[in-house]
Specification:
Elements (H helix, E strand, L loop, with lengths): L6 H26 L2 H95 L9 H8 L9 E5 L8 E6 L7 E7 L10 H6 L1 E2 L5 E2 L2 H8 L5 E10 L4 E6 L2 E3 L8 E3 L2 E3 L33 E3 L2 E3 L2 H4 L13 E2 L18 E2 L3 E2 L2 E2 L2 E11 L4
Antiparallel strand pairs: 1-2, 2-3, 3-5, 3-17, 4-5, 6-7, 6-17, 7-10, 8-9, 11-12, 13-14, 15-16
GO cellular component, one term: fibrinogen complex
Keywords: Disulfide bond, Glycoprotein, Secreted
Pfam families: Fibrinogen_C
């Protein structure tokens, strides 16, 4: 083979061989290096290649976040301003509406006061010019007057004007019970009316005529003391187990207030027993004056004995109620339950001691006292 003596060619060959040898050495060095070093080199190379793009990404994200936050802040500020304006507008509108309503209410109140004054003036003029027309002298008189024109006279509140009196007043007339014509002077049914009253209340009356009430000693006196009249007293009793009974007196009247409205009773008839007169003279309440907690006419001087109790005032003993007491006696249709903290075992209520069952007095839940005219010999 012919040798190449060209210096360029010779140097080129020498360089190629040198490069070849270096490449082989490098390859040999990498082939001999541990695998761990190869991984570390790759990882470092990868990190270096990602470091710049990541920084750019973070910067872009940060700029975007600041932009979003700025926009959100501006939106919140605008929303707050619009909300405050809306609330201010709403409050101003409500204030205007309140001002309008206030002026309307003031105007209405002025009109109501004007109308009230006119009504009061009209009523005053009407009563001064035209007195209230009564329906009769008492419920018996009303029944007699209406029988010829009304086929059925209803029970209810009527105006009566007894003879020899200067005024009219309302009463409840019972027109359905035993032929009608009854003027109710006392009724107790549900316990809603307090019968713990002073002397003045028992004289003038209290309660509601359509329900529980006491008509008043003064009014009853005017009714039963009319000229040429006699009145029957009828007491209707109902027990807690709905047993009914009655006591009736064929002549009933009251003395005037100067005699403390003393009661006078005629002959007894009925099924409840004559508790007003009791079993002996000491228990007799006929002709007894009326008593109240502040006007004591009960005959207990200085005290009375009831069972094992010593009583100085019958009214106070029966929880400050008023009645025709005579050493207390066996009847008190105005009796009131004792206060809860006192005498819980002996709560006193409506008392008609002669109405008994197997020797034990009935527990009475309701009572009505009514009066009616009866025929006279005159």
């Amino acid at each position: 083979m012919q040798q190449d003596n060209d210096p360029k060619h010779s140097s080129k060959s020498t360089a190629e061989r040198g490069n070849l040898n270096q490449s082989e050495l490098v390859n040999q060095g990498f082939s001999d290096a541990p695998v761990k070093d190869q991984r570390s080199f790759g990882e470092v190379k990868g990190q270096n290649s990602c470091s710049i793009p990541c920084d750019i990404t973070v910067k872009l994200l940060r700029d975007e976040k600041h932009s979003i936050c700025g926009n959100l802040q501006q939106s919140l500020l605008a929303f707050g301003r619009s909300t405050r304006k809306l609330m201010r507008d709403v409050m101003e509108e409500q204030q205007r509406a309140l001002d309008i309503l206030s002026s309307q209410v003031t105007e209405l109140m002025t009109k109501v006061q004007t109308l009230s004054s006119e009504v009061q003036r009209s009523n005053t003029e009407m009563y001064s010019m035209k007195p209230v027309q009564s329906h009769g002298r008492d419920c018996s008189d009303i029944k007699d007057n209406l029988m010829s024109v009304v086929p059925k006279i209803p029970s209810g509140i009527y105006i009566v004007h007894p003879e020899n009196t200067d005024s009219s007043f309302e009463v409840f007339c019972e027109m359905d019970y035993m032929g009608g014509g009854w003027t109710v002077m006392q009724r107790r049914t549900d316990g809603l009316t307090d019968f713990k009253r002073s002397w003045a209340d028992y004289v003038d009356g209290f309660g509601h005529l359509a329900g529980e009430h006491w008509l008043g000693l003064k009014k009853v006196f005017h009714i039963v003391n009319q000229k040429d009249t006699r009145f029957q007293l009828h007491i209707a009793l109902v027990s807690h187990d709905d047993v009914t009974s009655y006591a009736s007196y064929d002549d009933f009247r009251l003395d005037s207030d100067t005699q403390f409205f003393s009661i006078h009773l005629g002959r007894y008839a009925g099924s409840a027993g004559d508790a007003f007169r009791g079993y002996d003279q000491e228990q007799n309440q006929d002709t007894a004056p009326f008593s109240a907690s502040d006007v004591d006419n009960d005959g207990c001087n200085p005290f009375c004995s009831i069972g094992n109790c010593t009583v100085e005032s019958c009214s106070i003993h029966y929880n400050h109620t008023g009645w025709w007491f005579n050493q207390c006696g066996l009847a008190n249709l105005n009796g009131s339950p004792e206060d809860a903290e006192r005498n819980q075992g002996q709560r006193m209520h409506i008392l008609w001691d002669t109405w008994r069952h197997s020797g034990v007095p009935y527990t009475i839940k309701s009572v009505t006292m009514k009066i009616r005219r009866i025929a006279t010999n005159n």
